[in-house]
């Protein structure tokens, strides 16, 4: 844990580690629980695709048409934000206020950029899947109109 704190708070790592004591696992657990709660309360999309049966959903999961990682990444991001805020406040009051504040802001920005880059990859995948579904729908429409003309 000390090496992680040295990345953002440099010389204050010992003071912050002493101030946190053995409470870091509890902070991390609370942050994950809060992140899951926030995710399902505010972030879950309302217009997600509805499946008629579990087998259709399971088929899409096994064929990687449904990505679980985007939701997991959002939950982890929220949890990391909460942990960084708690550690940042401890650093501000246990050590140097300005260095703790600047370190917290810098780490929050780096965390946001990292998770945005991860989610861009999954956004590209979702957009390609939507394009493919639209193309298949258009091909089916063309085939149906062609079949109707032959009759």
Care to give the gist of this entry?
The chain contains 6 helices and no strands. It has 151 residues and is mainly α.
Written account of the structure:
The chain is mostly helical and 151 residues long. The chain has one domain (2-114). It has 6 helices and no strands. It has helices spanning 2-9, 13-20, 24-43, 54-62, 69-94, 97-150. It is elongated, with a radius of gyration of 23 Å.
Write the layout of secondary structure elements.
Elements: H1 2-9, H2 13-20, H3 24-43, H4 54-62, H5 69-94, H6 97-150
Helix pairs in contact: 1-2, 2-5, 3-5, 5-6
DSSP strand content:
under 5%
Main sheet attributes: strand count, strand direction, barrel closure: none
Q: Structurally, how many domains make up the residues?
A: 1
Q: What order do the SSEs take from the amino end to the carboxyl end, as H and E?
A: HHHHHH
Write out key terms for the chains shown.
151 residues; single chain; 83% helix; mainly alpha; 6 helices; elongated
